[in-house]
Amino acid sequence: MNMRDYAIVSEELTKIYRDKHREIVAVDHVSIKIKYGEFFGLLGPNGAGKTTFAKMLATLLIPDEGEAWIEGYSILKDPIEVRKRIGWMMGETGGRALYWRLSGWDNLMFFASILNVPRKIAEKRARTLLRFLELEDAVDKLVMNYSTGMRIKLMLIRSLLHNPDVLILDEPTLGLDVESAIKVRNFLRRLADELGKTILFTSHNMYEVEQLCDRIAVINKGRIIFIGTPREIKEKVEEIKIVEIIVASTDSDLKEILNKLESLSVINTVLFHEREAKNIKIRVSVNDYYTAIPEIARVLRGYKVESISRALPTLEEAFLKIAGVKIEETETRRFGRRRL
Questions:
Q1: Where are the domains of the chain?
Q2: Which residues is 70 bridged to in the sheet?
Q3: Three-state SS at 339
């Protein structure tokens, strides 16, 4: 295989952290191929190895075993060429990759000079990105006075100053408010769709990954356990039987409805509920559709039931199943859905 056939290739990439008493295999022989222009998600819980893998690709960490290539250039033999072609940001740092005693503008111009971006081009790109990400008013303030979300926006702008072909983004929306996170997600999707950027995007946010990514690799305990599209991941675990119930009801009826559902022996667990306009959507896991659906209809007689239907598992439910976690366990709630 010609390594230039793919934007990103890793082969058996491995990283082990050691101290006097133990060793931790953070990334365990990971092999991935990412196409040019692909928006690729690396999905996993905290501690799964996402950040370590991203840092090795960005030449910030040296692997213990294996190799990787960015547009055909080796991260071990050609790190300078790799850095010319990537834009990277590590959201978990909260801005530690910036100079806190410089202003936002001085940070951008400093990094642009390191990246050999001509001053006029750097200024034009920076102002455009600052305006889009609504950071113009803070650009002359010292970074030490920025919020976490502001620092993350500034890091994203910094990663784009040299117009790289490949973006390696670790938790790029971490710390952003909802409106800013939506703007960033839409912006990143446009970079892939309209400019052909290749994006490796790590997250433990199921909704983000499902909305953004063309393909997803699920990583757990340092190992890749599945690669496919969001739909392929869901279909792989179609043995998870989910029933979705939509009831036109007020919140005052919700507790009673949940109690009735939880009392049914045909329901394993009520997974979550949420309001959608005038309706309440409830998802439950069952063992058998043919016995569960009639029983659900029976106990909800008297309520305005819009629908009771079979449903594919959400990406969150699919991930937990692939990772070997029972979706009935309370860990299902960890990714942001409302606990019952």
A1: 3-228, 236-335
A2: 8, 73
A3: coil
The closest of 219, 133, 100 to 170, measured between CA atoms, is: 219
Q: What is the pLDDT of residues 70-96, one digit of tens each?
A: 999 999 999 999 999 999 998 655 567
Integer Cα distance of 271 and 266 in angstroms? 14
| Dihedral over Cα of 108, 109, 114, 120: its sign | positive
Check: CB of residue 49 under 8 Å from CB of residue 26.
yes
Closest CA to 309 of 261, 254, 247, 242: 242
* Residues in the chain, overall count: 340
- The per-residue DSSP string of 266-308 comes to TEEEEEEEEEETTEEEEEEEES-HHHHHHHHHHHTBTBEEEEE
Q: Tell me, what DSSP letter sits at residue 95?
A: S
Distance (Å, whole) CA 235 – CA 5: 29
Residue whose C-alpha is closest to residue 124's, from 142, 144, 132, 114: 132
- pTM for this model (two decimals): 0.75
- 28 φ/ψ sector (left φ>0, alpha ψ -120 to 50, else beta): beta
Query: CB atoms < 10 A from the CB of 125, how many?
Result: 18
**CATH level 2 (architecture), domain 3-228:** 3-Layer(aba) Sandwich (3.40)
- State which H helix or E strand residue 119 sits in: helix 119-132
Q: Does domain 236-335 have CATH number 3.40.47.10?
A: no
Under the banding of pLDDT at 50, 70 and 90, the label for residue 19 is confident
d(CA 231, CA 240): 14
